[in-house]
Amino acid sequence: MSEFTDEKFDHFLNTQQLCGFHTDWSLYEVDDLNTKHPFPEGCEVVYLKGEHWGDHDQIVPVEGDTWVDLWRAADQAILGSGDSHHCFIEEFTLTNGNQLVLRTGS
User: Fold this and answer.
1) Phi, psi of 92 (to 5 degrees)
2) Where are the domains of the chain?
3) Average pLDDT for 74-91
4) Which residues contact 37 (CB under 8 A, 6 or more apart)?
5) Which of 11, 21, 53, 56 is the most buried (most CB within 10 A)?
6) What is the Cα–Cα distance from 14 to 3, expressed in whole angstroms?
């Protein structure tokens, strides 16, 4: 696992502010959010009802191949759920070939 440094914190915070994200990136093994993520092209973030306090699953396509693009989709899924308490993006698990199940923390 990659070390969490002041530089990495600043990079995450600057990206959050620049993109207007309402969520927090907590995948510290990612060093540069502008690099390509390892997931399949055309994947989608799936935020299951059991993982948040909202009423419905949220499914958001990932438009692009960088970690920032993945954060953008996760941010939209979290906002769409209506659950503002669970705002820390902690894990993506690939299922069904192209679905990334999102796990969050508070």
Assistant:
1) -125, 130
2) 6-105
3) 94
4) 65, 66, 67, 69, 70
5) 21
6) 18
Give the whole-angstrom CA distance, residue 5 versus residue 29: 11
Q: Model confidence at 88, in pLDDT bands (50, 70, 90)?
A: very high
The model scores a pTM over 0.90: yes
Comparing 89 with 106, which gets the higher pLDDT? Answer: 89
The model's confidence at residue 2, banded by pLDDT at 50, 70 and 90, is: low
SS3 content of the chain, % helix, strand, coil (to 5): 30, 25, 45
Sheet of 44-47: strand order equals 24-25, 88-95, 99-105, 44-47, 58-61
CA–CA separation, 83 and 96 (whole Å): 25
- Amino acid found at 44: E
Contact 54, 81 (CB under 8 A): yes
